[in-house]
Amino acid sequence: MLVRAITAPGLRRWCRGRRGAATACFPLGRALLGVRGAEAAVFLQGLLTNDVTRLLAEGDAPRALYAHALNAQGRCLYDVILYRLHRSTAEEPHILLECDSSVLDSIQKHLKLYKIRRKVTISPCPDLSLWAVLPGDASSLPKCADQALLLTPDPRTEVMGWRLIAKKGANLSEIIPGSQVGDVQDYHRHRYKQGIPEGVKDLPPGVALPLESNLAFMNGISFTKGCYIGQELTARTHHMGVIRKRLLPVSFPEPLPAAGLPEGAEILTAAGKRAGTFRAGGGELGIALLRLAHLGEPLCIALGAHRFQD
């Protein structure tokens, strides 16, 4: 099957086309974990790639941050989005951590392993629901969100719209009048088109490297914050400036089969050289780790002894 890396102009076409369209809200199957207490931000600071103390800043502090938790070898364990629930620095820090639902137990154990005697409580939030919001008129959203626990721009990139957190069972049409519930597969296809990884299929734990996974492009890392687990290899790679592979959006000439392609399927050049690996996809779009040297060449997916190409 022929594979084509999507170029930068193609990444913006979908978003431009949605201007003036109805707001679409996509229910996400990701989990939310509450981290609360006087030392919540300091505790997370040593475990994540981004500068979590920004959530405690006076004045115009961000409501959300993107980050990865790494292992000691500098490879990704979990991709997370942090949300600030406390309204001011006078309140006790209260941070929500969004993660892939399949690793909720694992990330709880990971956090509790390093908690030691920190003044922090860690608990899942099954009473909350998480939505991705791709608005037609973004400027009107904050005025409509009185019933939302939190409505904030996606911290990774503006083309991913907004993140909405509300009580389970909340009426979306009251939170965002005129909105429509969308098919979550459309959300994932939009992600793939933008080259945005999310979850363990796109970022295999213990395998994915943060800079190859475009963490810096998605505002997910601070190179000035100091030490955290996995920082040494990541900082060295950044300062050397040599990244030979990246996660990139790819397209296929026809929709993928219902069963999909196996994760980790090899992508080859026409000459049979390894060009990368397929991570995940849906419809005619996907995301793959590709060697930058082979961009612009005809590529194909290899399955066993067979190559699928136009």
From TrEMBL:
This is Iron-sulfur cluster assembly factor IBA57, mitochondrial. Its main location: mitochondrion. Residues 244-301 form the CAF17 C-terminal domain. The lineage of its organism: Eukaryota, Metazoa, Chordata, Craniata, Vertebrata. Keywords: Heme biosynthesis, Mitochondrion, Transit peptide. Belongs to the GcvT family. CAF17/IBA57 subfamily. It holds the Pfam family Beta-barrel_CAF17_C. It is found in: Mitochondrion. Gene3D superfamilies: Probable tRNA modification gtpase trme, domain 1 (3.30.1360.120). GO terms for biological process: heme biosynthetic process; iron-sulfur cluster assembly. One of its GO terms (cellular component) is mitochondrial matrix. It comes from Taeniopygia guttata.
